Amino acid sequence: MSKASQKISLLIPVYNEVDSLETLLERVESVDFCGLEKELVIVDDGSEDGTRDILRGLETTKPDYRIIYHTQNMGKGAALRTAIDVASGDIVAIQDADLEYNPSDYPPLVRMIVEDEADVVYGSRLTNGDARDSFAGLHYLGNKLLTLVTNVLYQTHITDMETCYKVFRADVIKNIKIRSNRFDFEPEITAKVLKKKCRIAEAPISYQGRDFHEGKKITWVDGLWALKALIKFRFTD
Fold it and tell me: With left for phi above 0 and alpha for psi between -120 and 50, is residue 197 left, alpha or beta?
């Protein structure tokens, strides 16, 4: 890829993030993504807390943002599916709308794609001792278990399957049909890039996990759905 012609599309699914969205967008804007042109694709997944008022304002102040609204809450996977369809970048990265992840961690991941060292790069929270301490409750053990199952089923050696921070060559992710609507997007996309024999790399990232009273949405039920997805997509597309 020629750096001069590259653009990165940052996919930002949003659901009821009125308290964090503006801060998150400021952080994304402040990061130099390896000199790439930035395209922000924001999909509001039926927010009801005032998030949409912020986004309506951004339509005026940030006309270069691509903002899409779902008429009802459909889940993170559905929001990302919408965002992938409209993304126009050569590289695609995923950014949650909360503040658990720091966009300044992204450049080393993106660089691996730019320099053709990998087709897909995951930001691993589980290789960073400080990040491990930020997991709430049993989320750390749940992530370890799901990653272990991934490695056994798909004969790989990744350390953090459930991480939000994933970067793709656009042609890789656009050629994968995503069926999951909820948080089972993570195991599905992982399963499918592994089955395609894509070159996957990892780099450590920071993490500040929030708890349910702070707006965290993923629960132990989503862990069961993720486990089901890992098994399902091992044997079917």
Answer: left
